[in-house]
Structures are given as structure tokens and as C-alpha cells.
Structure to design on (476 residues):
């Protein structure tokens, strides 16, 4: 396991240089263990400037040792985080500093401000919100944010972003199929069937082309006092079909106890709100296509988890456990792809 | 036992012994980690001598391929079982891979029987799972 003291020393030196404060010290350094993608370190920096003492809570996001949804390109994340505030009013944490080469801790990272608030989970939405109206209000805010993301002209985005130069709206399917081919230990019959289905239903995409967040759901939003104050986790962002984001919001893994998309809005409320805000209607066929895709993508990331553990790239036992959970996702996929037969 | 299952058990054993156990402060709990690691390592070796699960799986995969042939899949590949069930399984899965891609292009009546078998197969796998994090 990595030496945390050495990592903290590297982070301290890096932040001291950025803030011009050689006496800088860190406290409350803690790694978030929830995610399986970028390493997220929560820390507070303290330093003296003249007579006054300063403290600032920060988040460092570091390329993981073995993440599920690579490639992990710190330059792209940094440039996207810097570009979005210039072209939209999407709530985002401010991106502060980047270490592109990994000089500070051995792996590249970027640092952003800490945003106070909660990250509600779909499985506790029935108890988290004061009432149904507060729950729906946050759902509605998220739909407004999705629509704002989709309204950004792709030309304004960093050149590095996937899909920016590719007019094919199914390019994302090909991207994940390559990940499956690269990481599968053996063929998974239902995924073979599903990739065949996606290829034969390529005509069901919406025809709209936009910036896609890629993992848009309540679990990637910070909520404070009933307002969505930050959208996080942009590592899957790309240019593609915006319906993919709506389908991810409605991913079956995130329906929670209320049994509705992201535990916030019914499917009908979700699609009605999007039509109202974005100005166009999502067809049932497009939604089904991207629901299947999102289940396939999740299953592929479980295949990747299994492979990373099996070849010793990580010893996190949760990766091994993921690999055993694929049948649940495959069951959703089979239900969807045979629903019109 | 398939190579991936062996890797999985050995990986869990290594993680328990080298990454988890040293960070467990309670002496009894630490010993439990080490004992579990040793058991899993031994289990990986013992399962090499229990080919039945692979042969059972091979029979299920063979039935799927037969259903695909009945649906019109034009091949007679995959062949007879070999002395090595794991190797035969790899061949069956490779054939299924091509056949299932082909199936998506076929009309609904050709797909029906195979899709029903895939669903049944999944239900068996789900029923065999002890606990589900992602239902």
C-alpha cells in the first residue's frame, strides 16, 4: 500500500509552491473511498501571510492506480474544468492548480475548491428531502443543469475531449466495446448479444449532438439548502447524444427506494421537464437505446474491475466483488432488448 | 477451475494477508484475516481437481449453441469436447460470441428461443449469487 505520509509531504510542497507559503501545513487529510475512478483527497491547508493566518479546505483529484473508466487524462479534466465556467453557468467547484506530470505525488493531479453540502444518494432520497416538493425541486434543477450542459456549443470545448471531431453519435458505443474487448477475461454472452443489438439499433439515436456529462445523476451533485451547488465527476464527459445523460439519470441502479429515476423524478416527469427546458422531445426508442447502453457500460466497467483485480493491478477487494455482480445488470439488458419482440 | 477463478481466489488471499491484515488492530480479527487468506489460497488449488462446474457450464453453453444452429446460425465449429474442459469452454464462448452478434440481425422469430435461453441462464446465475449489491 502507498505511504500516506510521503503523499501528504508531496501535496504539501505542491500547495506551498502554488500559494507562495513555505510554512504551509496540512490537516484533516482524508481519502474518499466511495469512488472507483479518480482518487479524491479532502484536506485543509493552513498558512500564514504577514500577520494573518489562513485556512482553506481543498479537494485534490489524482490519477488512480487502477480506475474503472480510463483513460485518465489530467490535462483534459483541467482544461474542461477551466473552460466550462467561461461558456456556461453550470455550478462547478473552482479548479485551482494542476500537476500535469505527477511531480508532487508520483501521479498527475489537479486541485479544486471544496464545496460544502451533501451528496444525496438515490437510495436515501425518500428520507433526505423535507417533502416530495423539495425532492422534485432538486430533480428539476438537475434537469435544468443537464439542459445547460447540452446547450454548450462543442466548438467551445477543449480539443482533447472525446467525440469533439466525430459526427458519429454511436462513437461512445464503439469506445466501450473497445474497453470490453481489451478487458474481458472471457466473452460474456449477454454483452455480445447487447453489442449486436446496439449495432442493429444505431438508427434510434436522437440526432442531437452535444456535450454529454457522461455520469449525470444525483450522486454526482452537491446539494446545499435545497440548491444544487456543484456538479462533479466529469471524467466521462464527451461529445455525443444528449439522451445518454437522461438515460444515465434514469439508470436502474439509481432508482432507490422510491423506484424512480435517481430517486427524484418519475420517468414521465423527467422527460416532460427536459422537453420544457431543452425545447425538444426525447423519443422512447432513443431512451431505450441509451438505457441499454448505460447498463452495458456499467457491466463493462465491472468486467474491467474483475480484470484489474485478477491481474493484480489493484488489491481492493471491492473490485473483485463487482465482477460477481454483473448478472443483475445483464438481466436489465435482456429485458430491454427483447421488449419489442 | 478456470484461470480467472484461480486468479480471483489467489488475489483475494493476497489482499487479505498483505493489505488488510496489517491494518487490523484487533489481534483476533487480524488472525481471522490471515486464516481466511490461507484457506482461500488452498481452495484455489483444491478446485483445480473439481472439473464438474466447468463441465456443467459447458453443457449449458453447448445447448445455447444448438439453439443458435436451430435459429439458422451457419456453422459447425466448436467441435467435440476436449480432455481439457476449460479449453473447450473457451472455444464454446468464442463461437457464441460470433453467433450472438449474428443473432441481432435476425428477425424476432429466429431470436426468440435463444433469448429465452439467455434469460433462463441469467436467472440461474442470479439465483446462485449469495448477495447482490446492484439489483
Amino acid at each position: 500500500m502507498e505511504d500516506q505520509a510521503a503523499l501528504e509531504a508531496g501535496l504539501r510542497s505542491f500547495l506551498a509552491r502554488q500559494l507562495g507559503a513555505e510554512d504551509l501545513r496540512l490537516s484533516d487529510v482524508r481519502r474518499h473511498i466511495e469512488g472507483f475512478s479518480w482518487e479524491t483527497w479532502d484536506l485543509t491547508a493552513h498558512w500564514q501571510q504577514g500577520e494573518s493566518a489562513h485556512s482553506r479546505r481543498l479537494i485534490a483529484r489524482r490519477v488512480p492506480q487502477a480506475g474503472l473508466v480510463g483513460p485518465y487524462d489530467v490535462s483534459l479534466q483541467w482544461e474542461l474544468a477551466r473552460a466550462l465556467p467561461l461558456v456556461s453557468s453550470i455550478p462547478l467547484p473552482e479548479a485551482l492548480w494542476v500537476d500535469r506530470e505527477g511531480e508532487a505525488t508520483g501521479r498527475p493531479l489537479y486541485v479544486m475548491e471544496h464545496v460544502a453540502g451533501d451528496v444525496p444518494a438515490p437510495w436515501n432520497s425518500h428520507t433526505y428531502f423535507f417533502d416530495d416538493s423539495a425532492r422534485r425541486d432538486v430533480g428539476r434543477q438537475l434537469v435544468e443543469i443537464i439542459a445547460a450542459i447540452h446547450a454548450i456549443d462543442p466548438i467551445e470545448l477543449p480539443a482533447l475531449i472525446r467525440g469533439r471531431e466525430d459526427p458519429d453519435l454511436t462513437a461512445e458505443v464503439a469506445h466501450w466495446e473497445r474497453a470490453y474487448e481489451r478487458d474481458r477475461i472471457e466473452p460474456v454472452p449477454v454483452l455480445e448479444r447487447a453489442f449486436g443489438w446496439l449495432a442493429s439499433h444505431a438508427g434510434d439515436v436522437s440526432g442531437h449532438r452535444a456535450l454529454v456529462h457522461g455520469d449525470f445523476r444525483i450522486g454526482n451533485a452537491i446539494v446545499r439548502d435545497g440548491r444544487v451547488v456543484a456538479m462533479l465527476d466529469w471524467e466521462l464527459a464527451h461529445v455525443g447524444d444528449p439522451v445518454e445523460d437522461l438515460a444515465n439519470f434514469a439508470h436502474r441502479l439509481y432508482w432507490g427506494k422510491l423506484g424512480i429515476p435517481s430517486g427524484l423524478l418519475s420517468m414521465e416527469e423527467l422527460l416532460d421537464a427536459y422537453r420544457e427546458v431543452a425545447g425538444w422531445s426525447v423519443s422512447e426508442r432513443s431512451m431505450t437505446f441509451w438505457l441499454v447502453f448505460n447498463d452495458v457500460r456499467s457491466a463493462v466497467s465491472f468486467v474491467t474491475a474483475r480484470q484489474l483485480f485478477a491481474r493484480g493491478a489493484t488489491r481492493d477487494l471491492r473490485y473483485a466483488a463487482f465482477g460477481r455482480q454483473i448478472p443483475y445488470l445483464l438481466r436489465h439488458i435482456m429485458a430491454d432488448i427483447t421488449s419489442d419482440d | 477451475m478456470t484461470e480467472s477463478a484461480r486468479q480471483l481466489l489467489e488475489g483475494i488471499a493476497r489482499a487479505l494477508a498483505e493489505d488488510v491484515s496489517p491494518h487490523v488492530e484487533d489481534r483476533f480479527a487480524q488472525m481471522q484475516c490471515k486464516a481466511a487468506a490461507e484457506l482461500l489460497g488452498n481452495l484455489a488449488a483444491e478446485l483445480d481437481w473439481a472439473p464438474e462446474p466447468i463441465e456443467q457450464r459447458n453443457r449449458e453453453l453447448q445447448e445455447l449453441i444448438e439453439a443458435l444452429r436451430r435459429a439458422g446460425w451457419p456453422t459447425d465449429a466448436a467441435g467435440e469436447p476436449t480432455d481439457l474442459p476449460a479449453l473447450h469452454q473457451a472455444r464454446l464462448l468464442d463461437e457464441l460470441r460470433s453467433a450472438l452478434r449474428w443473432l441481432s440481425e435476425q428477425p424476432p422469430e429466429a431470436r426468440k428461443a435463444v433469448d429465452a435461453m439467455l434469460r433462463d441462464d441469467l436467472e440461474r446465475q442470479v439465483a446462485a449469487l449469495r448477495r447482490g449489491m446492484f439489483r
